[in-house]
Design brief:
The chain is of the alpha/beta class. 42% of the residues lie in helices and 18% in strands. It has a 7-stranded mixed β-sheet, covered by helices on one side. Helix 6 (150-160) links the parallel strand 3 and strand 4. Helix 1 (2-20) packs antiparallel against helix 2 (24-42) and helix 2 (24-42) runs antiparallel to helix 3 (49-73). It is elongated.
């Protein structure tokens, strides 16, 4: 039994290593392998605490594998075609924000009014999902401590809701991303600004899912 137990432990250790490296498929396979070895051991054990503990461990490996399968479903890339419609921040990012408590948004360009509006819409989704802390990393064209600036007003509104909001300035930023503390990372080719401008009374002015988009790719990683 000790040989088989050692094999199960090795499978589980490999599963954790694969999961930490973001290799979800490999992690699932190793968790299942560990569980199957433990279930073979269980067939040879009499009732008792040892058997119960191994049974619980096997069940935990299977549960983690199923959880990671759900994660894998959220890692499908999103390819948006030119003038494509039917997209919103919630439809694209809603799943990866589930169970997140803090989010880091890397968006270099927030110096125009519409860009700050896009940020606010994304922040609204974060609040809806229960995120308690939001950090924005950006190149800054204005003082975020100026009470008339959009970023200051966003921070004030979030403070009233008990949500922490911070702005970090990095002059060399280029790549855009969203990183959540639940392990998900979104890589945004155009950042948050892939929606096209529409006139004030055009369809899509309020409902972004009906607004035409610019072509871009959004990909996802998971590293816990």
């Amino acid at each position: 039994m000790s040989d088989k137990l050692g094999i199960a432990i090795k499978f589980a250790q490999n599963a954790v290593a694969f999961e930490q490296a973001g290799k979800i498929g490999e992690a699932c396979a190793k968790y299942h392998s560990a569980a199957h070895v433990l279930m073979d051991i269980l067939k040879t054990l009499p009732p008792g605490d040892k058997k119960n503990k191994l049974k619980e461990r096997a069940a935990s490996y299977i549960t983690r594998a199923e959880q990671l399968k759900e994660v894998a479903g959220s890692l499908e890339p999103c390819t948006i075609s030119e003038n494509g419609t039917g997209y919103s921040y919630e439809s694209i990012f809603g799943d990866i924000l589930t169970d997140a408590t803090s989010v880091v948004i890397v968006e270099p360009y927030l110096d125009k009014f519409y860009q700050c509006q896009n940020l606010l819409r994304f922040v609204e989704l974060c609040v809806k999902k229960g995120v308690a802390s939001i950090t924005v990393q950006t190149k800054l064209a204005e003082n975020p401590h100026d009470e008339s600036s959009p970023l200051y007003q966003i921070k004030s509104g979030l403070r009233r809701r008990g949500v922490h909001f911070a702005v970090e300035v990095h002059d060399t930023l280029h790549d855009r991303s969203v990183r959540a503390d639940n392990g998900f990372i979104a890589h945004l080719g155009r950042g948050l600004h892939f929606f096209k401008r529409v006139e004030k009374f055009d369809v899509g002015y309020f409902d972004y899912s009906q607004r035409p988009c610019m072509a871009c790719d959004i990909t996802f990683d998971y590293k816990k």
